[in-house]
Specification:
306 residues, alpha+beta, Nucleotidyltransferase, domain 5, 28% helix
């Protein structure tokens, strides 16, 4: 039987797994709902162990529909941003605070009024929002000193999933972009870390790599949980939006793509980002090419054309 490529999409509310034939046809798929806990104070959280369990469940369900011995590789895409943290033993410190958590909104407003967030715009060409890692770290550090002291590594959802499958740590360029990456140097920027008073995160961030590189192989434990063969290669995980762009073979400046859903997301590939004044929207580095993706996401999507 021909080799199959496994794709994993770890969304905010659903974890999806699919198997693809060499020609690109989807031959099987599985979906498992995941739980998001939201509160009246702006909380939006997920239990990291539960997310890991959903990933294993989705892959096991998919494995029941295919010949798993034909699985040649596994690629990961996932929701981005938020604050996912583990301790020195690699265990979750607290529930992951998600990209749409708004508890740090008042702190962000104060920082913006002081001009501190301007460094973020200059570095990663993004208008900061409260669900990004730096803002959520500030919130946690100010309110839960015990949890903050135990944080040894900070990551995104894709990084956590990749580690759960391989035991290895890395992030890709698109997930590393916001808020600390300096696009000019392609490294974490001192100015951005200083602007948010987050120098204490500098040695806790995963090193960025191309999403086209191998993260590691499926571990024995992950193989037992999923039914997949031990050792099959797993790529460095990437942002869900970036995965769509790679899947559409978009890697040249000027190419544009729109996602029309509840939110309308316009993505424009560019090799030149030089904002005048403050940035509008967000920007992330392309996961496999030497260009950037400018992201504009008005909240009125499909409803605007009803």
């Amino acid at each position: 039987m021909s080799a199959l490529w496994i794709g994993l999409d770890v969304g905010t509310t659903t974890v999806k797994a699919a198997a693809y034939a060499p020609g690109g046809d989807c031959v099987a798929e599985a979906a498992v709902p995941s739980e998001v806990k939201q509160g009246t104070g702006g909380e939006s959280e997920q239990d990291m162990a539960s997310v890991r369990a959903c990933v294993m469940h989705a892959l096991a369900e998919l494995g029941g529909k295919i010949d798993v011995t034909s699985a040649a590789s596994l690629g990961i895409a996932a929701q981005g941003d938020g604050f996912w943290a583990v301790d020195a033993d690699g265990e979750p410190v607290a529930p992951a605070m998600l990209w749409n958590d708004t508890r740090a909104a008042a702190d962000l407003d104060a920082l913006a009024d002081s001009g501190a967030t301007a460094a973020i715009g200059r570095g990663c060409h993004t208008a900061l929002w409260s669900g990004t890692s730096g803002m959520l770290w500030r919130w946690l550090r100010a309110r839960d000193d015990d949890a903050a002291r135990r944080v040894a590594r900070v990551m995104t959802c894709a990084d956590w999933v990749g580690h759960s499958l391989t035991g290895e740590w890395a992030t890709d360029w698109s997930n590393a972009s916001i808020p600390f990456l300096d696009f000019a140097t392609r490294s974490y920027g001192e100015a951005q870390l200083e602007a948010l008073d987050c120098r204490d995160l500098e040695d806790k961030l995963n090193p960025p790599r191309s999403a086209a590189t191998r993260l590691g192989g499926v571990t024995a434990d992950a193989a037992k949980a999923t039914g997949l063969p031990e050792g099959i290669p797993v790529s460095v995980g990437t942002l869900d939006l970036s995965a769509m762009i790679v899947g559409m073979c978009m890697d040249r400046p000027g190419q544009t793509m729109m996602i029309m859903g509840t939110t309308a997301v316009v993505n424009i590939l560019s090799d030149s980002l030089a904002p005048e004044g403050g940035p509008v929207g967000a920007a992330v580095l392309h996961p496999t090419a030497e260009i950037a993706i400018k992201v504009l996401a008005p909240t009125s999507g499909a409803s605007a054309i009803d």
